[in-house]
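Lab manual, section 2.4: Encoding a predicted structure.

Procedure: take the sequence of the chain (286 residues), apply the prediction step described in section 2.3, and record the output as structure tokens. A sample record is shown.
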Amino acid sequence: MTMNQSDTIAVDFTPTYRALVGDTEKMDLYLVGAGGTGSALADSLARILYHARQKGKAVSLTIIDPDIVQEANIGRQRFCQAEIGYPKASSLTLRLNTAFGLDARAVTDPFEPDMVVSGYNAPKTKKLLIGCVDDYPPRQELARTVEEGRGNIWWLDVGNAHHSGNIYMGNAVRSEQITVDKALRLCSGLPSPAVQDPVLLAPDPPAREPSAGLSCADLTLREEQSLMINTMMAAIAANYSYQWVIRSEMTSLATAVTLEPPAMTSRWITDEALRSPFGLPEEKKS
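Recorded output:
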């Protein structure tokens, strides 16, 4: 019987790995940015913390954002009219602590690496930076923090445009920071987001559109940015965070999303995914 090409099934036998967080006595989460995506993600992080504590895990949450709630934020971000004029980080922290009985901490200053690395010398305390920022300078600071962490500080970068977005997860800035067990299909880390996509640390090209310079809230009001893209990005980032905290392992290192039309694809952890971001050649098959 002849089978049409459209009837065939493509099967990918590329071996995949699981990246292990490692032995951990305590986990510290830092949500950097409490805007459209960050404020949506904060609620999920609080639920993850609550679930983690039910399982006996020691997990903390710090929300970092220097901005205050403005009228334009209402509706697009997770704030209400009564919070206008108050710091975003403080408003979210107060609400989540009250709802879930947590002791999350708010920082109303711009992010600096010292907030994470100052006095840090305990490898069994793993740290996860969750970057929900929309500019390259804070991403440069996040990248510098990961470099100082020597593999113990992970970075989940969450960024979006008008109707699409990208998520990257990693902790290594050099290939030698990742050990691989080919027999068990395990690895000790993933390339840092800045290694996977160096453009994250570069200024955006000059924009010529009339919307250049407008905030995400303004773009949403003009219907130039989807009202749902932040919610979608937050949901995916929450699942990455859940894997890191609850399962202490990762099964993918990047996810790309678009809402026009709705589609999502993730990059699995393979030999090529672990080597190519560092510029290493593909291993020769014996």
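Check your result against the sample. The first strand starts at residue 18 and ends at 20.
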